[in-house]
Amino acid sequence: MPEGDTVFRAARRLHAALAGKVLTRSDFRVPAFATVDLVGRTVDEVVPRGKHLLHRIGDLTVHSHLKMEGRWDVYAPGERWRRPAHQARAILDASDVSTVGFALGVLEVVPGDQEDEVVGHLGPDLLGPDWDADLALANLLRDPDRPVGLALLDQRVLAGLGNVYRNELCFLRGVLPTRPAGEVRDPARMIALASRLILANRERSARVTTGVDRPGRRFWVYGRAGKPCLRCGTPIRYGELGDSELTLRDTYWCPRCQT
């Protein structure tokens, strides 16, 4: 599941493949930007911003978001794609490399000086140069009655966390996702732990929160409904939590270790 660490690695791969190179192919397979042609332009950089990707190309920015299923792949010229062609949403090639964005949840081309209109609403980026733990804490507590499990997923609070980290953080801090943020004991420690967890995983292809890199042992609660808690043995429970039916997300917790 793409979260901030996944996007961080994707940006690094794309930057290494494209930065400083002139585009020889530009193909946007979404109606609103199908006529945009970036051929002949030089890619300045590719950077992450929370769970967003920004290709900065002269005075334009290609903004994409992976959502649940998206990914960017890097190929040698002529190499067979690892996903079906009908899933391709963007193709940006240089003379010696091809990059393809598949099943992108968001794809748009905006003027570079208008980047803030697409990512300016985001809170401090856990993996970015603007990371500010104090601001993230203030954002978390701005609505003290909001369930902490919803606040942690709100990219306006802090940018980069997704559902895996949300569930694991609540377990590690011993709180139910439904507990109001204002009732979380020592919320600064939760923010600090979020930073440590995502930093520890930004170089890993397999995300781990338990310290044990083996199938079935990488997470404390996420994806483990009905299985015994790795700490106390109580069966892990499953439910859904969201601000509305449209935003319901899978939620896992240990009824003994979390209160």
UniProtKB/TrEMBL annotation:
Matching entries from InterPro entries are given as: FPG_cat, FPG_N, H2TH_FPG, Nei2_N, Ribosomal_uS13-like_H2TH, Znf_DNA_glyclase/AP_lyase
One of its Pfam families is Fapy_DNA_glyco
Domain Formamidopyrimidine-DNA glycosylase catalytic intervals: 2-101
Q: Which domain of life is it from?
A: Bacteria
Among SUPFAM superfamilies, the record links this protein to: Glucocorticoid receptor-like (DNA-binding domain), N-terminal domain of MutM-like DNA repair proteins, S13-like H2TH domain
Its family? Belongs to the FPG family.
Give the protein's recorded name.
DNA-(apurinic or apyrimidinic site) lyase
Q: Which organism is it from?
A: Curtobacterium pusillum
